[in-house]
Amino acid sequence: MRKIAAIFLVIAATALLFWALKSPLGSGASIQVFCAAGIKKPVEAAAVDFEKETGVRVELQYGGTGTLLSQLRVAAVGDLFIAADEGSLGDARKLGIIREVLPLARQHVVIAVARGNPKGIASLDDLEKEGVRLALPNPEAASIGKVAQRLLGSRWEKLVGKAAVMKPTVTEIAADVKLGACDAALVWDSTVPSFALDAVRLPELSGPNERVSAAVLSSATVPALALKFARYLSAPEKGNVIFQREGFQAIGGDRWESTPELVLYSGGINRPAIEGLVQQFADREGIRVTTVFNGCGILCAAMKSMRDPTHPKFPDVYYACDVCFVPPVAEHFPEAVLLTESEIIIAVPQGNPKGIHTLADLARPGLRVGLCNAEQSTLGFMTAGILRSMNLLDSVMKNASSQVPTGDFLVNQLRTGSLDAAVVYRTNIQNQAEHFEAIPLPAEKARAVQPFAVRAGSPRQALGQRLLDYLKANKASFEKAGFVWRGDAVPVKSGQLEIPDYLKQK
Questions:
Q1: Do 170 and 46 fall into the same domain?
Q2: Which of 23, 233, 254, 493 falls 20 to 30 Å from 442 in CA-CA distance?
């Protein structure tokens, strides 16, 4: 029995050790990366440095981008896909096999020739000359083949007929030129330095630069680690340096932080829709998000008091309650996405015992009215502006028995019977319909539009943009909370936001 017990203990200990080594929290954690062959050198070098710094092992598999894409579609395995061009990423999106995308570098098509260009190749016509051995990438397997085929149009078929060889990866045809087996090949400009070749650049091949990107696979079992490696690859002082050294045009991402902390300032109205989503995002990214919910007047005052945007608590992203609270901080948030909108209403107890039907009714003697503070909150500022535009501000303010930073406080006071009516967002009473009725306001005045903005100059700009993308991918959460969705619109410059005169801040 003792021997059996000892065997079970050994088995259990071995299983526990195996779990610890494979766990994302253990030093032996690993990610599986599928990488286009032409990007092998910078990714391989970055993976070595990444493992030294983090203890996370990067298991790399190389091939033509098209070949890898076919494998991923069938096998549904892996954590990260590093593609050589935009077209392949588009195909991956259509197949639903990728999620987050981090751009890494740019490259374009050139003709690779031996040093000194001994065949004197200076045009596409030269590739068709007698005695010139041409190597082409297979468009079914290599992304550069597909890109070159698109750029050259009907000329491509002529070159295919002339080609001595057609191979599945850009590195194989570059090696043919290096070894003298071929005289010229269509390759990426970033491939040329790796094989000590010369590049012939032609206008027919000078289309838009193709973007090298790291995309987290939908099959990722450790997305936080996949994203961590992708952030490492895109960091200006980490992967970017390696990409530049290897001849790529690097695209700078966020500065490297092992565990970034994203600071989000948000108006209180948005909390029911985003609080859970923000935590999900933080868990998936393996980061920390510090979220400050409050009235937008208080949030803007806090930003102004810090003055220096490099302050560690200055927000990286700002989700305001309405566009009228963007101008005070527009220098830091010059562009916004109008993500949602919410209706402003008068909330009264179920049955409307005081018979309130208009804003003018709030001025009736003896009513206890709840308003938000105009200096602290967007709702209070907008309420005051609306009342002022209707010549009702002074008369309604006489009945204002409560002025608080957010609508939630007013709803609580209304629920306890200390108020007869309150001006709030419809979303504030969305989940308490059995207790309250909503009295609509004039339609042209009752709409608050919530803009989401990423701070210009934030060291976590790309991370902030991914948070926005994550929120946009979860439209249903906003609609469930009572918001009207507007997130599919293009970003708007802060200086071009349409704000009524009565809501413009002095």
A1: no
A2: 493
Contact between 297 and 375 (Cβ < 8 Å): yes
**pTM for the full predicted model:** 0.87
Give every CB contact of residue 321 below 8 A, 6+ residues apart in sequence: 267, 268, 269, 270, 295, 296, 377, 378, 379, 448, 450
**What's the average pLDDT block by block, 10 residues per block, for the chain (506 residues)?**
36 34 56 94 97 96 90 91 92 94 95 96 94 94 92 94 94 95 95 94 88 96 97 97 93 94 95 96 97 93 90 95 93 96 95 95 95 90 93 94 85 93 92 91 90 96 97 95 93 91 83
> Are 110 and 205 spatial neighbours (Cβ–Cβ below 8 Å)?
yes
Q: Helix H segments across 153-295?
A: 155-162, 170-179, 223-234, 239-245, 271-285
Domain containing 237: what range?
2-106+210-250
Q: How many CB atoms lie within 10 A of CB 202?
A: 17
Written as one letter, the residue type at 86 is E
- Reading the block at residue 288, the tokens are 């920390």
228 and 309 in a single domain? The answer is: no
